[in-house]
Amino acid sequence: MFGLHQPFLKVSREDSGRYVLPGDFSSPHDNSSRQENESKILVYSGSTPATFHDMVQLFKRPCDVLLVFLTGLLLGAVIANRVPHQYLPNGATPSASPYSTFEPPATVPAEYFAAKPLNNSCLIDNLQIPDGPQTFDACGFVIRSTDEVWNLRGDVTAAIDKYFHDDYVNAGSWGRRGIGKKVLHDSILAEMRAFPDIQIHITDCVCKGNDIDGYKCAMPDILDGTNMGPSAYGPATGKYARWTGLVESLVQKNAKTGQWQYVAEWGVHDEWSLIQQLGLDFKRVPRPWRNTEPLHDCQPLLSFHPRLNMDSVDEMDKQFHRQAFLRT
Length: 328
Known about the structure:
By secondary structure, this protein is α+β, with helices and mostly antiparallel strands.
C-alpha cells in the first residue's frame, strides 16, 4: 500500500520478501498479484483540506501560483528519484536506459577478414569412439540420477554418494573448478537452500561411448525456482527465475563397486540471466574478474585416444586432489 507522508512520497510494501520492478509481470509463483499489493490511491496526511474559497484566493496572487508550480516540479523530481529505489533489493541502483540497437552491416566487415582465422578441424580425429559393447543405457542413467539428486525430494546425500565418484571433477562458468564429492555435496545443498522449489527440466540427452571405456553425455536443461535463501550470487530476493544450460558428463563404471558414476562434468548455465531475474546488482555479485577457462584447441574435453582421458588441465587438477586426499 502507498502512503503519502509530508513532505515526500514514501513507498512501503506489506508483502515482505518480494520485490517488483516497475513493468514486471507477476509470476504464477507469487502468492498474490501486483494489483492486490499496490494501491494506486495516494492519501494526503496533512492538515485540514483546502476549501474552494482558499483556492480562489490563491490564484488571485500570481506569485503564489508560480511558487506552487515550482514546488510541484521540485516535489515531482524528488518523487521520481526516490520511488524506483524502493523496488530495488539490497541497495541496488536503478539501471539506465537500454543501450541503442544497431542495424546489421550490409556486407561482411573488413575488420573480420583482417583478424586471425581459426580452424577447428584438428579436433575431428580426437572425437572418434572406439568399438566396444554398448549395453548400458547411459541416457537413462543421466535422467534417473538427475531426478534422484534434484527433483524427487528423496535421500539427497545417498543419491550423491551413489552416483558420483570420489574424485569427481565439476567444471562451471568463469572457469571455476570443484574437485571431490565433499565439494559437490556442499554446493548442491547450498543451491537447494537458495532455491527450495528448484526443478531441473531435462530437454534432451545424447551419449557416445561403450561399456568398457565409458560414455560422454550431453544434457541440455532448464532450471527454475524461487530464491528464498542466500545464494552464491547474494542474499535472498524472493524472486522466481528460469534459466537454461548444458552439461557434458563423463560416466564410467567404478572398478571397485561396479556402480556407474559421474567422473566429471562440464556445465555452463545462463547465470547472467539468473542474476538479472533475481534483481541483484551484478557489480556486487562474487565472481572472478575474468573467465579463466583455458582454451582446449584440438583437444576435446573427453578423448578416447589412446584411452578415455579428460583434458590435460582437468586431469592434472584431479591428480592433485587425489594426492592431497592420500596425504590426509
